[in-house]
Amino acid sequence: MVTKNSIEFDPYIERKAFDETKEGVKGLVGAKITQVPRIFHVSQGSLTDKNPSVSDLEIPTIDFANVHVDKASREAVVEKVRYAAEKWGFFQVINHGVPLNVLEEMKDGGLRFHEEDPEVKKSYFSRDFNKNKFVYNSNFDLYSASPSVNWRDAFSCYMAPDPPSPEDLPVTCRDAMMEFSTHVMSLGGLLFELLSEALGLRSDILKSMDCLKTVLMICNYYPPCPQPDLTLGISKHSDNSFLTVLLQDNIGGLQILHQDSWVDVSPLPGALVINIGDFLQLITNDKFVSVEHRVLANREETRISIACFFSSSALPNSTVYGPMKELVSEENPPKYRDITLTEYTQGYFAKGLDGTSHLSNFRI
Questions:
Q1: pLDDT higher for 225 or 345?
Q2: Which of the ends of the chain has fewer CB neighbours closer than 10 A, N or C?
């Protein structure tokens, strides 16, 4: 029997209709809608979860200025990285070596693409990484089990190990993407060294496990939302990566779940946000934590952020990962079974951003 309500609202049909416009959330804003479509509505439980953040807490900020000066200075930085990776899963870095003009041009380039003529953007619209180097769409998990659609559009591109040719990238952000990713990979090398040392291991151990090999760049675009209390920019999730390097603008909205409270990751001019991903929590046997986070929608301003994921998610990878043998013992046995990143990612994508931890499915 078909109920009246099911005729009125079929989420799949409405998601597909939204997808087929190829204009994303930006298209809805351009149409001057005053009400958020139902597919974007988060559950009442998620709404009551929008508790005010804890205003007196801030994620750690680490200054990398002296990391190469001498052994004592480096060890002081390593200790701060260890504390942040173990207790917070998130930290901001300053004096990280990426020039300010490179950061600004990347934000500007991302904004230029997302505010480009819709017909130009449509030429890059796809959901298939195997056919396209540069992919633009709205909500990678649109057709997954995720209960609601997020108020954001994005473009994605693998910048390593097989970087795109310049002609694969839109003119609006081509140079910015190439330059920013070069700097991010250099910073990634340093971060994985410091994290290795924070584990008490040799500095090249994580690099030797190919944690640094693959970089996926995603540029998120969050236009103003007419009813920000009904939806989210990104639902609560942890990252499908070893490590994530995030460049955010000055609008704010990113929050992390710390000791059962939401804590704002306040924008810090010139800083980059670093967070531990699921794979690093798994291989460090819970020593480092991959923390759930989300982005709030806002009514007034457009937010842009560029995330670089050290992860092979959509690319074939047969390497098996499990808790590192150097970190397990009789007193501290493995907490996770061995996995491939491909296996993990397939489940992560199928589940979508539904507010639950995918990592918990692999616990022993």
A1: 225
A2: N
Instruction: Report the distance separating Cα 356 and Cα 342, nearest Å.
Output: 19
Within 8 A by CB and 6+ apart from 22, the residues are 118, 121, 122, 125
Which pair of structure tokens corresponds to residue 254?
A: 């990113």
* 261: β partners: 258
Q: What is the per-residue pLDDT across 262-315, written as a single tens digit (0 to 9) for each?
A: 999 999 999 999 999 999 999 999 999 999 999 999 999 999 999 999 987 667
The answer to whether the beta carbons of residues 257 and 334 sit under 8 Å apart is: no
Q: Is 27 exposed, middle or buried (0-12, 13-18, 19+ CB in 10 A)?
A: middle
> Residues 127, 137: contact at Cβ < 8 Å?
yes
How far apart are alpha carbons 174 and 300 in whole angstroms?
28
CA-CA distance, 187 to 172, in Å (whole number)? 25
Q: At a CB cut-off of 8 Å and minimum separation 6, what does 171 contact?
A: none
Helix 100-114 to helix 174-198 angle, to the nearest 10 degrees?
A: 130
pTM, 2 dp: 0.94
Domains present along the chain, CATH in parentheses:
10-362 (2.60.120.330)
